[in-house]
Amino acid sequence: MTMITLVISGLKDSVPAGNGRSPARRAASAGRRLPWAWGAVLFLVLIACATPARAQVKLLIPMDNTQTDHLKAYGIAFWSLSRDQAVDWLLNYRGGSFMMDYSDIAAAECRIRGVSFEPVSGSQAAQIYSAVQSETTNSDLVRLETAPKMAVYVPPTSQPWDDAVTLALDYAEIPYEKVWDKEVLAGKLKQYDWLHLFHEDFTGQYGKFYASFSSAPWYLQQVATSEAMARELGFTKVSKMKLAVAREIKKYVGSGGFLFAMCAATDSYDIALAAGNTDICDVVFDGDPPAANAQEALDFSQTFAFENFKLEMNPMVYEYSEIDVQPSFTSTPETDFFTLFEFSAKHDPVPTMLTQNHVGVVRGFMGQTTAFHKRFIKKGVTILAEKEGTDEVKYITGNFGRGTFTFYGGHDPEDYQHAVHDPPTDLSLHKHSPGYRLILNNVLFPSAKKKKQKT
């Protein structure tokens, strides 16, 4: 209204006063000028109305406690990347917020998905960038440039309750493709930027479920499917096929791939690599006894994360080795927590990205592999989260060749003591899950234009 008043006032002053003409002629003259005058008013008013929209040069997706759906916010970031629109990940700023160029389409997409956002003017964006990159703050900016191509290693017999990561990807509306042994051994991993392994047994012992589920239809189907695939691919044993798959995945990481594993896929993967020159499977798994010197024959130089561990050779024990932390009988959802490490955003952007969250302490959750004993973790591996006061490590990352691996213990962050045939978690009831946020940090990690890690 102020601008309109000024414009009209200016137009009144611009009408000639007199010039020897009669009041009637001056009025007529002014009347002839009115169409032009009001056209100018309309033009300037339209400019005034359009100015706020043009001023919103950025769209901020806060990831602190003001966010209405933390998990779907990752999907918005991925959606933007898939449209060739870069995203700035503001590490340690309001819970690890995202900022991108403003557009009505992006704003509408946020509204559709129920993700809260804040339009940001040019001056506000400059202030945010300045604060984030200030040497006095433990924050930084990482540019996400392209949407990674995602693959999930999953058997055809997989059930919805099998994989928290696919639940997260589906809820966040992040596309992915499924691969299994045949695709891996055919060399198709090179088509993908990111690979996820979940609750998979790479040792050929079928999850060591034999004692409890050897007669269950789903277990028998799993065995039959794996054995048929091994025969099709020319292997005499499932354990040999899984070893070949594990080695192919290792090549993938060494060539620059990003590997994320959870639950039993973490320790069973390293165990399979360590046991590459021996037989650790008992008769109930592959028809012949394990090698007498299986433990001594382990080669820890082949593993990503773990070393110096002892195997659990008893086929009736639901455990692979002493890497896994057995849950305490006194542990409950109300008392079980793990703490995220705080890293230097400017000097250690990789672990900082992987630990972005709106909380620093996260509720624990169990799995076949719940967590890792610190004493078996290699020195070059970075610990991202641990249970304070214990040697229990929940979340780790490390480098191999040109690639990166990240291991996250536990089965489902929102299902404390997950059991076979439990219904899949409804993530619409857990929109703010810190445990699931750690999964989705890994999804965006391959998009980052990374700085060299200094510590």
Jot down its keywords.
single chain; about 450 residues; alpha+beta; Alpha-Beta Plaits; Rossmann fold; 3 domains; 10-stranded mixed β-sheet; 5-stranded antiparallel β-sheet; 14 helices; disordered C terminus
Structural class: alpha+beta
Residues in helix, % = 25-40%
Give the low-pLDDT segments: 1-54, 451-455
Largest sheet properties: 10 strands, mixed
Give a short synopsis of this structure:
The chain has 455 residues and is an alpha+beta fold. It contains 14 helices and 15 strands. The two termini are 57 Å apart.
Protein described:
The chain is an alpha+beta fold and 455 residues long. The chain folds into three domains: 2-54, no CATH class; 56-144, Alpha-Beta Plaits (2-Layer Sandwich), CATH 3.30.70; 150-327 and 366-424, 3-Layer(aba) Sandwich (Rossmann fold), CATH 3.40.50. The chain has helices at residues 2-14, 23-55, 70-82, 104-113, 122-132, 164-172, 181-185, 210-213, 217-232, 238-254, 264-274, 283-286, 349-354, 434-444, and strands spanning 56-61, 87-91, 97-101, 118-121, 140-144, 150-153, 177-179, 194-198, 258-262, 337-340, 361-363, 372-373, 382-386, 392-400, 403-408. Helix 6 (164-172) links the parallel strand 6 and strand 7 (177-179). The longest helix is centred in the first third of the chain and has 33 residues, at 23-55. Residues 1-54 and 451-455 have low confidence and may be disordered.
Chart the SSEs and their pairings:
Blueprint: H1 2-14, H2 23-55, E1 56-61, H3 70-82, E2 87-91, E3 97-101, H4 104-113, E4 118-121, H5 122-132, E5 140-144, E6 150-153, H6 164-172, E7 177-179, H7 181-185, E8 194-198, H8 210-213, H9 217-232, H10 238-254, E9 258-262, H11 264-274, H12 283-286, E10 337-340, H13 349-354, E11 361-363, E12 372-373, E13 382-386, E14 392-400, E15 403-408, H14 434-444
Parallel strand pairs: 6-7, 6-8, 8-9, 9-15
Antiparallel strand pairs: 1-3, 1-4, 2-3, 2-5, 10-11, 10-13, 12-14, 13-14, 14-15
